[in-house]
Design brief:
Elements lengths: L14 H30 L12 H5 L10 H19 L6 E6 L9 H18 L2 E6 L9 E3 L17 E6 L5 H4 L12 E6 L3 H7 L2 E3 L7 H6 L3 H4 L4 H12 E3 L1 H13 L13 E5 L3 E3 L8 E3 L8 H15 L10 E5 L2 H10 L3 E2 L16 H19 L3 E4 L3 H14 L4 E3 L10 H5 L8 E3 L1
Parallel strand pairs: 1-2, 1-5, 4-5, 8-11, 8-13, 11-12, 13-14
Antiparallel strand pairs: 3-7, 6-15, 9-10
Helix pairs in contact: 1-10, 4-6, 4-9, 4-14, 9-14, 10-13, 13-14
């Protein structure tokens, strides 16, 4: 785990800052050790008979990662990435990096789903530009508190970036037009060692994977063209597939997140004797608005989305659409696992249908808008990540308009081989790909089929 590198500007931190940084690092480490010890104790002290729902299976089952082995663009990128990371370790002067950046100076990075969207986009930009992808996040915590590198792509090396490297920064928060995105592909940036980008949308990733070709936008569709020799092998059909592939190549949950997922899954059971099963419908309700600080929540202010009066719509959609698509064991109907930014919503919806379950000890925390102590921030960030990954393991998702559930639905689709995602308030529109509904906005008048 590392803390944000404060030497990017070329200034050396003073002694008091170094002391504060060391103390903060020590505090996070101690908390993580305490959390790990507590959770391991939960499974060792007479309770080991409870099945560990997510042990090591999560890493290998949700995406057939082996399919990408041998794809020329991926193999070439791996060699380039490893070569640049080795140069970075040696302090060589010709290193080429593309850095996802999220610090207090970024002002807004977005919630968990938004951040993953930006990272997935920038990973594909790295492939196209021939740069090693790196994550440099300090707000509210380093990413490696919850997610660590998966497989062969080590993106957790921002502490090695020297202040002497030439760099450029581009901010692309909430950008949905090719003119803005074109900045990161500009020739004037090619000589820079480090290209730092703030991004919170998957629009750029979708543009790179488009099957169209746009005049004066050489990068548009470039990933699709790179992938043509592997198209049948990978069988990437939708933006959700592109997002899920990037997520799987880059990330896996930390031990702390994995243990928290196991613990939350136990609290979703209706009785001590019930068998843990992944056969459930995930319901995600994003109410937004003012979330009060309580013992269950860090509190934050967010644009209003859905409301407490919408419980019946979520249940109806789960029954009429998602639930009817899935086979269930006779006498054992599939439960609905509810995730929400509102404890009151979870309590109300559970009273309206016996199939509804929710984890009653989740700490509610918005990683972009909540402000809390270090201990609370670690706890809330771990819980938010565990919730998203639990939601992604559902057989089908009924949700609010939220990138949190959109990201989860992409992982679900890639694992199941088919989409099962519905907006609760437009359930009659049927099964949707989240990104195709939300990331539109570019002008296709310049584009033609390839």
């Amino acid at each position: 785990m590392h803390l944000p590198d404060m030497t990017r500007s070329g200034k050396t931190p003073n002694a008091p800052f170094r002391w504060r940084k060391s103390f903060l690092l020590f505090s996070i480490g101690c908390f993580g050790l305490l959390l790990l010890t507590t959770h391991l104790g939960y499974f060792d002290q007479g309770k080991g008979t409870k099945s560990n729902f997510f042990d090591e299976e999560f890493d290998t089952s949700h995406t057939p990662r082996g399919r990408i082995a041998g794809c020329s663009w991926y193999e070439q990128y791996l060699r380039l990435h490893k070569d640049n990371i080795e140069k970075l370790r040696r302090g060589d002067s010709d290193v080429k990096l593309l850095v996802y950046e999220c610090h207090p100076s970024t002002v807004a990075c977005g919630g968990l789903g938004d951040r993953l969207s930006g990272m997935a986009s920038l990973f594909y930009v790295s492939v196209v530009l021939g740069r090693a992808f790196v994550v440099d996040q300090s707000m509210p915590l380093p990413l490696n508190v919850t997610l660590v590198p998966n497989s062969d792509i080590n993106w957790d090396v921002s502490a090695l970036i020297l202040p002497t490297y030439s760099s450029a920064s581009v901010k692309l928060i909430d950008k949905f037009d090719l003119t803005a995105v074109n900045k990161i592909f500009g020739a004037d940036l090619s000589s820079k060692n480090v290209l730092r980008v703030s991004m919170n949308r998957f629009f750029t990733g979708m543009s790179l994977w488009s099957k169209l070709k746009c005049e004066n936008r050489w990068f548009f569709g470039s990933m699709h063209r790179k992938n043509e020799p592997c198209e049948l092998k990978l069988n990437l059909q939708t933006p959700s597939d592109y997002f899920a592939l990037a997520f799987d190549l880059l990330f896996k949950p930390t031990v702390e997140v994995r243990l928290r997922m196991n613990e939350l899954s136990q609290s979703l059971l209706s009785s001590k004797t019930e068998t843990v099963s992944k056969n459930y419908v995930g319901v995600h309700a994003r109410l937004g608005g003012t979330v009060q600080r309580t013992t269950e929540s860090a509190g934050w202010q967010d644009p209003e989305r859905d409301s407490l009066s919408d419980t019946k719509q979520f249940i109806q959609c789960a029954h009429d659409r998602a639930f009817t698509l899935l086979p269930s064991t006779p006498g054992e109907p599939m439960p609905f696992f509810v995730f929400s930014d509102s404890e009151e919503f979870k309590k109300r919806i559970s009273l309206e249908d016996s199939l509804v379950r929710y984890a009653n000890d989740t700490y509610l925390f918005h990683i972009d808008r909540s402000r809390a102590s270090l201990t609370t921030t670690v706890r809330g960030t771990i819980d938010a990540t565990a919730d998203l990954l639990l939601l992604s393991q559902a057989r089908c998702i009924v949700a609010s308009y939220s990138t949190f559930s959109g990201a989860a639905s992409s992982l679900l689709r890639f694992r199941e081989g088919k989409s099962c995602f519905f907006h609760a308030k437009s359930c009659d529109k049927g099964n949707i790909d989240f990104w195709e509904q939300t990331e539109k906005g570019f002008d296709l008048s310049e584009c033609e089929n390839v």
